[in-house]
Amino acid sequence: MSRTTIHDIAKELNTTAATVSRALNDHPSISSATKESVRRAAQKLNYQQNRAASSLRSGKTFVIGVIIPSAEISFFGSVIHGIEKVAKSRGYNVLLFQTNESYEDEAQGIRTLLQSNVDGIIASISKETTRYDHFLEVKKRKIPLILFDRAIDELDVPAVVIDDYKGAYLATEHLIQQGFQRIAHISGPQHIQIFHERLRGYVDALKAHHHKVDGDLIMYGKVSIDSGRICTEQLLNLPQRPDAIFAVEDFTALGALQAIKETPWNKPGQIGLVGFANEAFSAYITPGLTTVDQQTALMGQEAANIFMSLRQEEENPPEFPQKIVLDPVLIVRQSSLRRKSQSNHGGK
Amino acid sequence: MSRTTIHDIAKELNTTAATVSRALNDHPSISSATKESVRRAAQKLNYQQNRAASSLRSGKTFVIGVIIPSAEISFFGSVIHGIEKVAKSRGYNVLLFQTNESYEDEAQGIRTLLQSNVDGIIASISKETTRYDHFLEVKKRKIPLILFDRAIDELDVPAVVIDDYKGAYLATEHLIQQGFQRIAHISGPQHIQIFHERLRGYVDALKAHHHKVDGDLIMYGKVSIDSGRICTEQLLNLPQRPDAIFAVEDFTALGALQAIKETPWNKPGQIGLVGFANEAFSAYITPGLTTVDQQTALMGQEAANIFMSLRQEEENPPEFPQKIVLDPVLIVRQSSLRRKSQSNHGGK
DNA sequence: CTGAAAGCGCTTACAG
DNA sequence: CTGAAAGCGCTTACAG
């Protein structure tokens, strides 16, 4: 009792496999009567196409390979969601590979995806990766490669990123508009581009609103809860202490919040706080954390959309790789509202 | 400049494709000298196996299909992580399909995976699904099917679940041991098995410790933040109000926490609280939420392990499907510690 | 509108 | 230990 093939259907209908294949693929030169009877027979015999055979012959697999550091990180889970959603709607499937931030695993992943003849690869580069030979191999084989979030300009491939500069600008401007006067920033390592961009956005927003940029108010942390706490303690001990803090991302902001809460002279709402990333916890801590949303699911969708458009233009690919820069979205919650009580009363 | 095939390697070495294939697959009857030279030539020519061709001929794809409601839910992201990790270590890849809790999408997913000739399917059933014909089709084709978390006994297939009864028992016992006297439970809809099991665990723990089971202290909520808040307000207005609450899951617990904080007469630490699921936010709210961890990544790993063992025993499959019940892990944080100050001072 | 035939790149039973 | 040959299930250029 082996699987039904197009030959079984052909036999059933006294026709040939070629006709059956064409009918099932809705080939224009097949009469609609034939198509109808083939479809009926296929249904009756419970036929399922063998994709391996189809792709071996046609060269198309309708599979998109996705390479991410870890599906356990909610950011990537969300991006995968967006990618798979678009892929499915266009008849594509997603083959998933995790790198655990390792270069070796990433190179292995690329090899596997090439062996699987994926029609394209969407990837976010591992932290550890500094050589790009595996990605160059993908380019050499003319397989569409799209990067997201952690993009590498040097590779000269399409990418979807978020506008970190603008997100930081919006966050800082919001604090200014709330009336805060001395706004500090806890940044991260400057060799990582996104952190540097956020610092630039902070500085430019201050300048645009004629606020002084004070080097004492800029800390370089290690991007963690502990680091956020430590930097904040130092900031609050300054002779001229800040009245608001923009943290480079939400975990840093969380540490900052803990330090703020422990400060004896602090009253709720006295020190403004904004984070970045809109992590899962940000809405649920007290006070709710104002932050910058990165539109993660949209990022995945746009990456998949670029892939789809590359498929269309296969014969004459665009001269310059497309780069999509997503707009960050400021999410205002209680942590940045000035001198208001933090009671949740009546909140929902 | 098309891709290198085994014929190219054979030509290079004046041998045949058969020998090259055997050498690359480490076939025992090939001399090690031949294997070595084939491998070298393969490397030199940058050969990558064509998996479509291989699996068309051999019938094995080394692909595991995974069906989940959504990768955006951190629980599933974490399970995928576990599955992919084990799969990769054994040379398998993961083909991902999301159902968005829809029966139609789920059936479509199964169809796609069957067409892709996956070697096995690991799935968590959509909330909407009440017919199982698509899963029966998988069984009929003798393709290993493993369910996790949302398992269906009726299908009679292997499954990995968590022991909800035990998790609830541990949570309740912990509150008893902290010295709380009147412990309430906010449950969920009883037609969903996991919620019913948690209620049973709560009741049995009370009984085992000679606590009275008071129907007034058992609420049936809708499993959401709002519902947790509403149920808690009602509980705290009882003439004989509870001094601790075990919530059916962390979002309900979060709502409960909000209600507790707003209660005027409440002092920190006076009302004990435990949740269930160890959601991403649970560690970061104030006070930190004591909860029950579901070992999500382990759940994925175990599901993948079952698949691997089924592969081994392909010829004589086990008579009864294997069921793995994972041990829940109680994570104690501040929300359940009795009459202690909630200061974070010195915490890390 | 349909058929006959070749071939995608592998694997593997059979023969030596 | 290696080779010749068949075949997995499709698709598609060519012919009619």
UniProtKB/TrEMBL annotation, chains A, B:
The keyword Cell membrane does not apply. Keywords: DNA-binding, Transcription, Transcription regulation. It holds the Pfam family LacI. InterPro entries: HTH_LacI, Lambda_DNA-bd_dom_sf, Peripla_BP/Lac1_sug-bd_dom, Peripla_BP_I. GO terms for molecular function: DNA-binding transcription factor activity; transcription cis-regulatory region binding. The keyword Glycosyltransferase does not apply. Residues 4-58 form the HTH lacI-type domain. This is LacI family transcriptional regulator.
